[in-house]
What does this fold into?
Amino acid sequence: MSPDSANVAAFLATIQDCQQRLRQLRGGYLAAGASRVDPVFALSGRPFTVHAGAAKTEYDGCLTLGLVVRTADGREYDLEVDLLWTERAWRIDTTARADEDERGRRLVRELPQRNPDDLPSCLQQLQAAVTDLAVFEDWVLAK
It folds into this structure.
């Protein structure tokens, strides 16, 4: 197998591991009192821009993994890990957003951003970020 093929295989295996971990987290959220938990998987290989104040960063693509958690009283939260990339860099964001109907999704919690240097580090940190979605459980279900 060529190095490029090995990298693709490692990436796909990591995504599969992350999906398995999301299934486990889903069960935990349901057992803790969530009324519904749906998985999130979105992949975009199209360039886009992220604006943060006056700064803007161009990314080549994004992978989003996460859970949409609905509480017993009907509130809904998007718990997400976003993997963004450029030709030279990786970025991993872990967030909780509240769905607010007409106002969209409001950021309510976020964990420190991760910026791995290489693919192996990126894959490890992606798995860790998915596991970190469990830290939102007490907060989401206690509201």
About this structure: Residues 3-142 form one domain. The chain has three helices and seven strands. The chain has a mean pLDDT of 92.
